[in-house]
């Protein structure tokens, strides 16, 4: 079953450019992919993870105002018993929430740009079940050739503000690899900084992406668009400033998209 995006659900912000697709985009009916089980147990585990000793005050300060991990993971269909791959974990902000939430019931894998999280997080107590997936020798995030992850039948793949670091060819190779790593019905959750629709590259938008372009690229890999959320939309960001600018850093308009492998 499919449904058309309701324009009334889009906030008046940079993410509102998705409303321009309202007459043409269709979404998989959420009831076709959403799990039947209640989110309460998973919510409890996420809340416990958010109180974990490995998290710094600077990390916890971003919880409610900026990153909203409980609401975000619920939107992405995350459950405590899933097999999950986190792409480009960086310093491990989400890893510190995902790993404890999955421990004992599910499984967390991390891949691409994992040196930092491996050195600073995965060697700490409680993170021994996390598995690092290595890229082929010599391959980097910015220059990905065609490849496959050394895992399959995953339930969920997540990437938080990383696709903008890649060119279109690298993103295509990544999306293909993600598609092949997921089981049928598996989910792919994406968040990134919003760029104006069809805006050419300039010195200020290099770390922003046009969400319409991202949707088309991921659909080209075989995915269905399930839904989008305005959880990380920001009316204060008019999409003209570099994401690190003092006026918008930590408060950029971000699109939040969920895809499904048929």
Describe the structure in your own words.
With 262 residues, the chain is α/β, with parallel strands linked by helices. It is built from eight helices and nine strands. The strands form two sheets. A seven-stranded mixed beta sheet has the order 5-4-3-6-7-9-8. The two termini are 12 Å apart. The model is unreliable at 1-12 and 30-35 (pLDDT under 50).
Topology (SSEs and partners):
Elements: E1 2-4, E2 26-28, H1 40-50, H2 57-60, H3 63-67, H4 69-75, E3 83-87, H5 95-102, E4 107-111, H6 115-120, E5 131-133, E6 154-160, H7 168-181, E7 182-193, H8 211-220, E8 224-229, E9 254-260
Parallel strand pairs: 3-4, 3-6, 4-5, 6-7
Antiparallel strand pairs: 1-2, 7-9, 8-9
Helix pairs in contact: 1-5
| Helix/strand/pairing category | alpha/beta
Principal-axis shape equals: globular
What amount of the residues lies in strands? 15-25%
Overall pLDDT metric: 90
Largest sheet: 7 strands, mixed
Please tell me how large the radius of gyration is: 17 Å
């Amino acid at each position: 079953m499919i449904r058309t995006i309701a324009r009334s659900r889009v906030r008046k912000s940079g993410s509102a450019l998705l409303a321009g697709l309202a007459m043409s985009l269709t979404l998989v009916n959420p009831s076709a992919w959403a799990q039947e089980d209640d989110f309460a147990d998973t919510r409890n585990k996420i809340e416990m993870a958010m109180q974990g000793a490995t998290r710094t005050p600077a990390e916890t300060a971003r919880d409610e105002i900026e990153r909203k991990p409980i609401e975000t993971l619920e939107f992405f269909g995350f459950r405590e018993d899933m097999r999950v791959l986190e792409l480009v974990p960086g310093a491990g902000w989400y890893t510190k929430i995902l790993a404890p939430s999955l421990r004992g019931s599910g499984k967390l894998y991390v891949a691409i740009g994992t040196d930092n999280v491996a050195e600073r997080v995965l060697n700490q107590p409680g993170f021994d079940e996390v598995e690092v997936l290595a890229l082929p020798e010599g391959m980097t995030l910015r220059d990905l050739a065609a490849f496959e992850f050394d895992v399959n039948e995953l339930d969920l793949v997540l990437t938080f503000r990383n696709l903008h670091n890649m060119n279109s060819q690298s993103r295509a190779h990544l999306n293909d690899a993600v598609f092949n790593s997921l089981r049928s019905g598996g989910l792919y959750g994406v968040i990134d900084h919003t760029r104006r629709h069809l805006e050419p590259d300039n010195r200020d938008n290099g770390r922003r992406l046009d969400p319409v372009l991202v949707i088309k690229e991921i659909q080209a890999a075989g995915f269905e668009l399930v839904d989008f959320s305005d959880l990380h939309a920001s009316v204060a960001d008019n999409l003209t400033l570099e994401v690190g600018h003092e006026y918008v850093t930590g408060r950029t308009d971000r699109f939040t998209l969920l895809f499904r492998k048929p």
